[in-house]
Amino acid sequence: MKLKCVIIDDEPIGRQLIAELIADIDYPELLGEAENPATALGLLTDNDVDLIFLDINMPTINGINF
Fold it and tell me: Which helix (H) or strand (E) holds 21?
């Protein structure tokens, strides 16, 4: 069974590093990436997501409030 996951991080390098780590493991499936929670809403509403890699400190809305 694959874990469907999404990365939400405002830093491109952070998203890239997490995506590379996900690619090295067999069971997670990366559905997409977003640079902020507002753009992530489309990914989250259009897909069944099991796991979210969420940055806490983001400029528009932080990860805890999201």
Answer: helix 12-23
Point out which residues pair with 44 in neighbouring strands. Answer: none
pLDDT classification of 16: cutoffs 50, 70, 90: very high
Strands 3-8 and 28-34: parallel
Of 25, 26, 24, 37, which Cα lies nearest the Cα of 6? 37
Residue 38 is encoded by which pair of tokens? 């507002």
Q: What is the pTM of this model?
A: 0.91
| Separation CA 20–CA 66 (nearest Å) | 24
Q: Is 22:5 a contact under the CB 8 Å cutoff?
A: yes
Of the candidates 34, 29, 26, the one whose C-alpha atom is nearest the C-alpha of residue 50 is: 29
Interatomic CA distance for residues 8 and 14, integer angstroms: 9
